[in-house]
Each structure stands twice: as structure tokens, then as C-alpha cells.
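Reviewers asked in the last cycle whether our approach scales beyond single polypeptides. To address this, we selected a multi-component target totalling 378 residues and predicted its structure end to end. The input consisted of the following lines:
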Amino acid sequence: MKELVDRIRQEGVNLGTEILKIDSLLNHQIDPQLMMNMGKEFASVLPKADRILTAEVSGIGPALMTGLAMKVPVVFARKKQPVTMKTPVYKETSTSRTKGGSVDLIVSSEYLHRGEKVLIIDDFLASGETMKAMIRLVESAEATVVGCGVVVEKSFQGGRAALATDYPSLPIHSLALITSMEGNKIELA
Amino acid sequence: MKELVDRIRQEGVNLGTEILKIDSLLNHQIDPQLMMNMGKEFASVLPKADRILTAEVSGIGPALMTGLAMKVPVVFARKKQPVTMKTPVYKETSTSRTKGGSVDLIVSSEYLHRGEKVLIIDDFLASGETMKAMIRLVESAEATVVGCGVVVEKSFQGGRAALATDYPSLPIHSLALITSMEGNKIELA
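The resulting structure, written as C-alpha cells, was:
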């Protein structure tokens, strides 16, 4: 998606240890029109679903706009179980380099239903661990993941290959593809 | 806003201790079209701004849609400082009953600028403590808060009155007004 790739070229910062800072447009400040264009792109490319699943916090913007374009509800997995969330819940644990250590992902069974088609949207695809945890959440509910959309894929961290091993027929669409972050550079495909 | 009030009547649950569960439409699952309508309402009623400030997590949906309608960027205050956020930051502490204890709100100085007009959007107005902390964040940046929009105001918890004492001319617009949560009831104005 040229608009996003251009913005990453202009505003992205390589913080070292393979961490990309795009706080100006996605992870701290959000550009609503860019989010809307991203949501339309996901909705046009990825399979139709009954529901969209994402993870708090930075997946919410792109997922919400995809849900708007697809006219389906969006559920965001929580990292901690809030007082409003009563059992039973689905819970999976992932590892995140940017967040440091392990991260829980929790979804109430009220908002993932057996037999549904679920589209997963997230901000980054790196090792694929978070995406796999979200897929397991959907499987726990006996629902089906019909596709994954990610805003930024870091291909050199192997997430797509790891997902392809476990889920060979799963469609994965990324809006920007980073092929290398060696030195201070950000190489985009 | 009738659409929201109707949804709260249908889906809202009084969990006791004055906590309202509306996880089906705002705090866990999000209805994108409802969010869009809320954003349009805020944009039509509240003063124009250069930027919108909200707090993660549940403020993001309404703030993003308001930003889309107003064509301005949205910044969400973080509760923990992520690795991508370098100093200097603005930081304030609030108390939250639903989240338990004190909550930090952190915004990078990159995304709040001196002299700007800032509109604050949040999901709930209860005691007003979170809103006051966000106002202090804006003031720390020497920017001006031009208005506050909240999805659900719980008038019996006194937030509007507390804000009016400190900021008598600040416009506050709520989309749904809950006047009582005694027993198991949810009384809406």
C-alpha cells in the first residue's frame, strides 16, 4: 500500500534490535484517514468474515476501520482481565519482543462463537507468535480463521513462514513489507 | 444520542459498585458503525481542534472516529511507557475504580505541541479524575483544551461538577447520561 510505505519511509525510525517506531501514525498518534484507507484495503483483499479479532492496543485502529468497511463487529483481546469480564474466557499466551516477555491475550466467550468465520487484524507481523496466539483463541472457540491482515510485516523475522508451516492455506495480507533493518536502515519491499 | 442510549438499555449490565458493563459495543467488542455515528456527533457538537487526545484502551474507538470526522490526528495516552517512547514525555497519574488503584497516563512530547487546540475524548466520565489528568497533560504541553467528549457520563459520580469547579467554561458533551445505578438498574436520562 503505497500511502503507508511512503509514510514509513518518511516517519519510521529504526530503534535498533529490529524495532520499528511508527508512533506518529499508528502506535501512539493515529492518522484516522490513513487507518480508513488501510481498513478499506484489508476489506477488499481479505475473505469476508463474521467478526474481526485484534489485540489491544495498536491493532484496534486498523481492525476498527476494517470492521467499518466490512460491516462486522470487532473484538479486541485484552492483556489483563478487566473487572467487567467474567469467566468463561479464552486465554492464550504469546511472547513479544517490543513489549518484553510474555503477554496474555484474553477474549470473553461472549464474543467468539462456534462456527463463525473470523478475520484477524494486527499492527505487526514479526515472529508470528502473537498471530499464532490469536489463531489459537479462535480455535478454542471452535470458530475458523479465514485470513490475517497485518499493517507492517517484518519478513526477516520469519512470521509468515512460521504461520505457513502450521496453517499452509491461510491467507495473510500485509500492507507494508520490511525486508531488513540492518544498521539504521529500514528496507521496504 | 438515541442509538447509543437504546443500545445501553438493551445490552448494558449493572455489575454493582456503580460499574457499567458495555463490553458488547465499546469496551471489548466494538460496533464500528455505532463508533462512526458517535464520532460524527462529537465532531458536530464540540469545538474544532488541531488534535484529539484520548487514553488507551477504550477511548481509542470513539476518538479515532471523531478524528476521522474532524480530519485531525488522534493521540492516545499510554499507561506504560513502551520501548518506542523516548523521553521527554508528559506524565500524569489518575485513579480509576474499574481499573483498580492509580493509573499513569503518558504522552510523548512529540505529539502534544504548545499553542495547539486539543479536544479530549474518553469512554466514561465518572469522578472526572481521568479527564482531569488528561487536561493536565495538555496543560503541561502549553496547549489548550477546547472541549471534552465522553461516550457515557455517570452523573451521580460527580465528574461534570468537579470539572466545572476547575474549568468553568470548558464544554463537555456526553452521548449517554446515566443518572442512577442503584440496585440492578441502569437509569438513563
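The radius of gyration of chain A is 16 Å. We regard this as preliminary and will revisit it once experimental data from Aim 1 are available.
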